[in-house]
């Protein structure tokens, strides 16, 4: 090339190549979406699951902090052989140096565990549950090695590939004493997952203290509190609760908040009433399920009602967004530290409830 071009021409060619490469890279990053939903058909939500259909989900884990709570969720989600669970356990590992990202499957299509040298205590904890709950729980362990900035793609891509209706992403409480760098990374992943997930998402707010332990499977006893206002996310939360209600070791308390304000009748209200009445009817003879209605007339009364509820439980379930008729988002947005949790989820994750040992599952319905 130097023999054909003079120095000035050679420089021009090199500069042109550099510019063309930069432009093409920029266009690829803008136009190529690895999580494009163009090939997806229908909705992947918990509401669309049949009553005894296998419950499949992706659980993403950065460290061991949420593992005990996730193990309990596996247990409460499988009441019997007719309500089996398939857990895709994705251990996220930060990529060091300039190596390439990789996704490692630890179970092949023949149901043989492989790549054992890259499995760790996180994977083994779930595999032990599968052994104890043979025929009811199936675990598919994965390891994703990638930068923090692209971990949401690993999570969403696996969920899309496996066609699951639910993703669980941990959110460590800020005052729980865990590793600040890893916990911050875990929290930073969540907004991207919420916006790009091909299915519903559950954000699991948890303590990172070692005091959290999975309950013994042979004497399982678990208490769940559900806060219901209305809207897509709350209905999705109630759909998940319906599954938990079939477990003999789970006790459930559902609080429905009834705003005493004028609100024009719409489809949302109709669906809320229909779903809630169906849940109540289905559990009318279930002594482990209790339902109450709480009348509230304004935001302050609603906050007081939440704080007055008996929260001595293991798990609180709430939708990420609520249809309250009380402009809850507008009233509390300036006090919200983590918008990805919604105003109620953020409240439950705040220092106001720091003395309670419960975890919180904040659910967002896909397509809502």
Automatic annotation (TrEMBL):
Domain of life per record: Eukaryota
Keywords: Ion transport, Membrane, Potassium, Potassium transport, Transmembrane, Transmembrane helix, Transport
Residue stretches spanning the membrane: 12-32
Transport keyword on record: yes
Stretches assigned to the Cation/H(+) antiporter C-terminal domain: 223-366
Organism: Musa troglodytarum (fe'i banana)
One Gene Ontology cellular component: endomembrane system
GO biological process: inorganic cation transmembrane transport; potassium ion transport; regulation of pH
Name of protein: Uncharacterized protein
Domain Cation/H(+) antiporter central, first and last residues per copy: 86-210
């Amino acid at each position: 090339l130097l023999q054909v071009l003079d120095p000035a021409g050679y420089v021009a060619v090199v500069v042109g190549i550099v510019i063309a490469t930069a432009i093409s890279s920029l266009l690829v990053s803008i136009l190529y979406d690895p999580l494009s939903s163009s090939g997806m058909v229908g909705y992947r939500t918990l509401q669309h699951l049949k009553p005894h259909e296998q419950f499949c989900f992706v659980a993403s884990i950065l460290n061991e902090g949420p593992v005990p709570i996730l193990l309990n969720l596996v247990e409460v989600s499988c009441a019997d052989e007719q309500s089996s669970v398939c857990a895709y356990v994705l251990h996220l590992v930060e990529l060091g140096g300039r190596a390439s990202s990789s996704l490692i499957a630890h179970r092949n299509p023949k149901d043989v565990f492989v790549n054992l040298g890259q499995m760790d205590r996180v994977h083994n904890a779930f595999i032990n549950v599968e052994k104890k709950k043979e025929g009811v729980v199936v675990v598919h362990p994965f390891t994703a090695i990638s930068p923090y900035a692209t971990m949401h793609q690993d999570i969403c891509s696996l969920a899309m590939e496996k066609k699951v209706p639910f993703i669980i992403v941990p959110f460590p409480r800020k005052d729980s004493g865990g590793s600040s760098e890893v916990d911050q990374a875990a929290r930073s992943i969540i907004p991207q997952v919420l916006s790009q997930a091909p299915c519903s998402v559950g954000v699991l707010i948890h303590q990172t203290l070692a005091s959290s332990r999975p309950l013994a499977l042979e004497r399982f006893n678990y208490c769940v509190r559900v806060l219901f206002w209305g809207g897509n996310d709350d209905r999705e939360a109630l759909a998940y609760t319906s599954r938990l209600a079939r477990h003999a070791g789970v006790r459930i308390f559902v609080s429905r908040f009834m705003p005493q304000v004028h609100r024009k009748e719409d489809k949302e209200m109709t669906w809320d009433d229909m779903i809630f009445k169906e849940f109540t009817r289905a559990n009318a003879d279930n002594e482990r399920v209790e339902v109450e209605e709480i009348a509230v007339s304004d935001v302050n009364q609603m906050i007081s009602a939440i704080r007055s509820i008996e929260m001595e439980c293991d798990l609180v379930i709430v939708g990420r967004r609520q249809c309250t008729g009380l402009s809850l988002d507008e009233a509390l947005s300036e006090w919200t530290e983590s918008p990805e949790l919604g105003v109620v989820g953020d409240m439950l994750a705040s220092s106001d409830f720091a003395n309670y040992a419960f975890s919180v599952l904040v659910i967002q319905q896909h397509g809502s």
